[in-house]
Specification:
binds glycine, five-stranded mixed β-sheet, 15 strands, binds manganese (II) ion, globular, 2 domains, alpha+beta, 447 residues
């Protein structure tokens, strides 16, 4: 496990990461008028009338400090000027395997107190009058006696704003997550070429990454043929389709709690579909080159529409110039999602709409409600770039019935519907110089 390995490249970068988090917490607490920061890791939740827990997902606020994804009922407690304290819950439980004793490259940064129960953990958090001066960040029903999360807005806002800038440690974790996911993507392509089912492609992906389903940062999207047109296609069918025309696979991996989010599309050699993949790939690389400090991410999104509309025009699918396709909403029929989002501890990382460190909201452009990032980029921000072109019956029907129907070559659209769609997604870091494409670098290193 990454977190246990003293030789991981993360080890040397971690102390400075914690220092950065302390400085960010100092500022956030001061802005909110609080003296202590308390971060619960989270609690297990059980299904109704059952003893079966839902999969545990650690509080991302806790995960920012610690590469610990499966330690429920623990707390990070930080008071400015003091060493951060980790209250580590290692319950006596013979039904389940409890977390291992705390060890790993991260351990020496904390004062660690091991407890045996959630209730015991509370004894090691600020008490009495200090309780009122705690900013407690977590899901509202993550309760311990006297420790109900209050999620003060000024504290959350400052922390969320700051999360756009990745530390050197976080960047390394994101590179490692990309390397891991790329191993899975290579295996998935091979399985597709060998004629495997969606389920078997998914299994090949898991095997190559070393993850199991619950380790994934999100449910992988593994769509053969028409399923590529379902943006968040949620099944993995075991049966084999009559033909393997196309695969769209959107699948990630994690390292130390940080996420990769990568999509690739493959075809069977059909000329038009292959040209579509090449077109989207060219657009994707042009957009990745735009990931630079000072660039308004909304402009990348709108340029994505123009460039994709150019592909539709050049392939003779839509006979309209790109600007008119954007203005009339025709490009949105084929590209109905945002060009990307922040990436980090969460696949869709927080803070994408913030106007400043103390809040405010930048709305997406009119007509583009699914864009999740509207800020200007800064150095060390990591975003996804994920243009796509899809043939979605529900969206094509009104186009066919509307005033722009004549601009569309419906024979080509019908041909491409059998392939579903194309999406290509990389993870890209903005630097002062040329952007770092974490995904393509990992791909080049894996070959
Ligand atoms: N995998 C989800 C996304 O690309 O946003
Ligand atoms: Mn994705
Ligand atoms: Mn994404």
């Amino acid at each position: 496990m990454t977190a246990d390995n003293p030789h991981t490249p993360l080890a040397a970068l971690y102390p400075a990461h914690v220092q950065t988090l302390c400085a960010r917490a100092d500022e956030a607490l001061a802005a909110g008028g609080f003296e202590h920061l308390l971060l619960p890791s989270g609690t297990l939740r059980y299904q109704f009338l059952d003893d079966r827990p839902y999969p545990f997902a650690a509080n991302p606020q806790f995960k920012a400090w610690l590469p610990l994804e499966q330690v429920p009922d623990s707390w990070l407690a930080y008071t400015p000027g003091r060493r951060p304290r980790l209250v580590y819950c290692q319950p006596d439980d013979y039904w389940h395997l409890p977390p291992a004793p705390p060890h790993g490259y991260w351990a020496e940064q904390f004062e660690i107190i091991v407890v045996r129960s959630a209730a015991q953990a509370a004894e090691h958090l600020p008490t009495g009058s200090a309780t009122a001066r705690c900013a407690i960040l977590g899901e509202p029903d993550w309760r311990l006696p006297g420790r109900v999360p209050n999620n003060p807005t000024p504290v959350l806002e400052r922390l969320h704003w700051a999360r756009a800038v990745k530390t050197a440690y976080e960047l390394e974790a994101l590179r490692m997550a990309n390397a891991r996911a790329v191993r899975g993507h290579l295996a998935a392509e091979e399985a597709f070429r060998a004629g495997a089912s969606e389920r078997a492609i998914h299994d090949a992906y898991l095997q190559a990454t070393g993850h199991n389903d619950l380790d994934l940062p999100y449910d992988s999207i593994v769509g053969l043929n028409e399923h590529g047109a379902v943006l968040h296609y949620q099944y993995k069918r075991r049966d084999l389709p009559a033909a393997h025309r196309s695969l769209l696979i959107d699948a990630g991996a994690t390292a130390a709690g940080y996420c990769a989010d990568i999509t690739r599309s493959y075809g069977d050699g059909d000329e038009l579909f292959q040209a579509l993949i090449a077109g989207v790939d060219g657009v994707e690389q042009a957009l990745c080159a735009m990931v630079r400090p000072g660039v308004d991410y909304r402009d990348i999104h709108l340029d994505c529409h123009r460039l994709l509309a150019g592909v539709l025009r050049d392939l003779g699918i839509v006979r309209m110039d790109p600007e008119s396709q954007l203005e009339t909403g025709v490009s949105s029929v084929f590209f109905p999602h945002g060009v990307g989002h922040y990436l980090g501890l969460q696949v869709h990382d927080v803070g994408g709409f913030m106007a400043g460190p103390d809040g405010g909201r930048i709305e997406p452009p009119d007509g583009h409600p699914f864009l999740r990032l509207t800020r200007s980029l800064v150095e060390e921000a990591v975003v996804t770039i994920e243009p796509g072109l899809y043939f979605i019956p529900m969206l094509l029907a009104p186009l066919r019935a509307g005033p722009h129907a004549d601009a569309v070559d419906w024979a080509k659209v019908e041909h491409l519907q059998a392939f579903g769609g194309v999406r290509i997604e990389d993870n890209v870091r903005a630097t002062a110089d040329r952007p770092e494409n974490l995904t393509r670098d990992a791909w080049a290193a894996a070959r």
